[in-house]
Write a structure and sequence with these properties.
Blueprint: E1 17-21, E2 26-32, E3 37-41, E4 46-53, E5 55-59, E6 65-69, E7 73-76, E8 82-86, E9 90-97
Antiparallel strand pairs: 1-2, 2-9, 3-8, 4-7, 4-9, 5-6, 5-8
Length: 110
């Protein structure tokens, strides 16, 4: 068993910390200061984004937008595009599974 106390990790802004990457999934802690964004992006895996503290807005291009604070859990399909903006300093937990997903560059033969 591995455990992490996200409130005590001291994640620096702009320096996400990979907590686990075991072949089945990946867990990443992100410190997103108020007013800053994770620009529009997508990943090859199914993604879950948990707001541990603070508050965010999530927007899908041409689609739905929502706001939420601590406890909000959002799920995204593989390759689904989104943009995340911190409306307060936010500590986020991003879970990706499976890791790496189909089409991820690390799966390309050399």
């Amino acid at each position: 068993m591995e455990t992490w106390d996200l409130s005590r990790l001291g994640i620096e802004p702009h320096r996400p910390k990979i907590l686990s990457s075991d072949g089945e999934g990946r867990a990443i802690a992100i410190n997103l200061p108020s007013g800053e964004q994770l620009q529009e992006h997508q990943v090859h895996e199914r993604a879950w984004l948990l707001v541990v503290s603070g508050a965010i807005d999530i927007a899908e291009p041409g689609g739905e937008a929502l706001s939420g604070g601590a406890g909000l859990l959002a799920s995204f399909d593989p390759k689904e595009r989104r943009m995340v903006t911190a409306t307060e300093d936010a500590l986020l937990l991003l879970l990706l599974s499976p890791w790496p997903g189909e089409g991820h560059p690390s799966n390309n033969p050399r």
